[in-house]
Amino acid sequence: MPKIYTRSExxxxxxxxxxxxxxxxxxxxxxxxxxxxxxxxxxxxxxxDIALTSQLLKxxxxxxxxxxxxxxxxxxxxxxxxxxxxxxxDGVNEIDMVMNIGRFLSGAYxxxxxxxxxxxEEAHGAGVKVKVIQESGFLSLKQVEEACEVSLQAGxxxxxxxxxxxxxxxxxxxxAVMLRTVGGKMKVKPSGGIRSWxxxxxxxxxxxxxxxxxxxxxxxxxxxATESY
Length: 229
What we know:
The protein has 10 helices and 8 strands. The chain has helices spanning 7-11, 25-38, 50-57, 77-90, 101-105, 109-124, 141-153, 172-182, 197-206, 216-221; strands at residues 14-18, 42-45, 63-68, 94-98, 129-133, 158-160, 187-189, 211-213. It has an 8-stranded parallel β-sheet with strand order 7-6-5-4-3-2-1-8. 47% of the residues are buried.
């Protein structure tokens, strides 16, 4: 018998994505109020919004997460390390960094490992967890497996599928590879394309730890999602 999830149980696994480039301060305030009301796991924001979001969510139990080197992962390693330091100073609890996809596809696995590790070292020194976004739509299933191994070797805490700005989205097949490769050693977060209650619950039953969702209220209400993420 599959587990029956309650609304609050699903909400507690959601990293609510607030990442569109045209979002205003008023939008951030509105999303933060929703996150506090629904008791999601975290509100995932742009770097410029970390300090404000940290202030808005103080005392609510909702974590502040942010993207780093988003959405292409192409910043130089020292820049990524600086971005991590700045995010920590601004009050972030978790960092969702984008893997350097071009270097990975070039076979430069040592480069990618060191790139991730530079962020991990900054983050773990401050008690901040790191999720590595693979942008899995660019990868074969074999490459997803290899990217998971790289993230594990670099010391990251989560592997994550997509930015929502690249090709494709999370799929059960990609998640199965992630869980088979690093399940029990790292946590797994599907993101991109989770726009219904049924999809969210299916991933939780598959064994993931977090969900990247843009249309959180619609998903929790079982209504049609309006966000593209």
